[in-house]
Amino acid sequence: MTTTIQNARLSSLTVLLAVLQQHQSLNDCLAPTLDDLADSRDRALSQALCYGVLRQLPYLRALLKPLLRKPFKERDQDLEIILLMGVYQLLYTRIPPHAALAETVQLTRVLNKPWATALVNGVLRNFQRQQDKLTAQVAEKGDAVLAHPAWWLKKLRNDWGKLAPTIAQANNEQAPMTIRVNARHHSRETYLPQLTALGFEAIPTPHTTHGLTLSTAVDVQQLPGFDAGWVSVQDGAAQLAAQILDVPEGSRVLDACAAPGGKTAHLLERYQPSELIAIDSQAERVEKIVGTLQRLHFSATICCADASRPADWWDGQTFDRILLDVPCSASGVIRRHPDIKYLRQATDLKALAQQQAALLSAIWPLLAKGGRLLYVTCSVFAEENHLQLQNFLQQHSDASEAKLNVNWGHTLPVGRQILPGEDNLDGFYYACLVKTV
Ligand SMILES: C[S@@+](CC[C@H](N)C(=O)[O-])C[C@H]1O[C@@H](n2cnc3c(N)ncnc32)[C@H](O)[C@@H]1O
Asked: What pLDDT is attached to residue 85?
């Protein structure tokens, strides 16, 4: 008979196989799997195992390696994941070790691989016995404890030098739940007491005017006024976009890569543009902008189009403000999406940088003289950030940087970078350009 806890582990195994073997996104495969678990404790355990194993995968593999005589065959990768889940539970959870072991070993029977029961049991018991020695050995080797693919660490060291290990460690931490209070309904000072009255703890999110960081994640439906649009979930670093863009009343605004609409909505909460056009190239994501704005009772001109081909959608009137939140590696938000460490490859960066350069060059002519364009990524890699902007500025004599007068992040040759975990924020890059002639 399968127990409820075991169902949670089986679900986690299915999700981890989908991510690691079929290269599916964790978000896409976890949500439906959690829906199938009736008990909230099962959902919590399954989520913790999936996120935890993906956060620590290279480290867990390094710990397991000395205990295995040979690597698993392709068809038995599920057994490796079972072992990784077992080691994760022993190291990082408060599940009593005997229960973690018994329930994890039981998975071999559920998978109809009873021949592997003794193997999984033996390896996990060996790990338990040798835990201190193995963790010390792996720690001595250095990089494995940082739990990132080798190319990723090399790149972090290249771009950030001595800060690379701190960035990697921050990537492996759990991110907080941060909300943005809708300025049209409340200030955070008037909203906070409503949260505390329900027993939720929150503090003002550093550097933001409307952010609140909760001490524990909660279901959005429990947040006062969520359905009425009083609050939205958004990391503090992402909230800085609308703050920086500073839109004068009556301006014409373009949000060129807008889905799912978090920053579009924030612009509409703060400012009163004459028109805001929100574009995204992916139809199913455009639907998300519609949903975001509907909940908040805002309207905008929403368009499914390729922003790098203005001839297809632009009416010829320039914009006073442009937000260009380009598609990127998402290397700044690994703490929220640990699967990206394995889904992204070093070779993807070149194509992403080309796409960003194409968007920037195509959108620039749409900016009015004296207008401002805010370039944003949630990446920490130089070629998507300041190298991209340096290159652009060299090629566009009518563009100059408007330095950001702020007290967060790191100054770069162009723009500013918040590194993941700094002030408990996600990693974001911001550069503001002004059109001079
Ligand atoms: C970083 S996300 C934007 C997040 C959004 N600004 C927010 O705050 O909710 C980048 C978006 O760019 C879109 N995108 C990628 N290439 C595009 C293109 N050529 N034209 C328009 N949108 C594009 C993607 O579909 C994706 O939704």
From this structure: 98
Q: For 183-300, list the strands marked E by DSSP.
A: 202-204, 211-214, 231-233, 252-255, 275-280
Q: Is the pLDDT of residue 372 over 60?
A: yes
Q: Whose CA is nearest to atom 19 of ligand 1?
A: 306
Q: In testing the pocket of ligand 1, which one of 280, 306, 336 has its CB within 8 Å of the most ligand atoms?
A: 280
378 is catalytic: yes
Q: What is the CATH number of domain 4-147?
A: 1.10.940.10
Report the SS3 class of residue 330.
Answer: coil
Question: Rounded to an integer, what distance in angstroms lies between the CA atom of residue 89 and that of residue 96?
Answer: 9
Q: Is 49 helix (H, G, I), strand (E, B) or coil?
A: helix
- Decide which of 1.10.630.10, 2.60.40.1180, 3.30.70.1170, 2.120.10.10 is the CATH code for 177-233: 3.30.70.1170
Q: CB within 6 Å of ligand 1 — which residues? A: 238, 257-263, 279-282, 285, 306-308, 325, 327, 359
Q: What are the CA-CA distances from residue 60 to residues 51, 81, 218, 300, 382 (Å)?
A: 13, 10, 29, 47, 29
The ligand 1 atom nearest the CA atom of 261: 9
pLDDT of residue 6: 54
- Where does 236-435 sit in CATH, by number? 3.40.50.150
The best mutation among 281, 356, 428 to test binding of ligand 1, ranked by most ligand atoms within 8 Å of the C-beta, falls on 281
Provide the residue ranges of all domains of the chain, joining segments of one domain with +: 4-147, 177-233, 236-435
> pLDDT, tens digit, for every residue of 294-321?
999 999 999 999 999 999 999 999 999 9
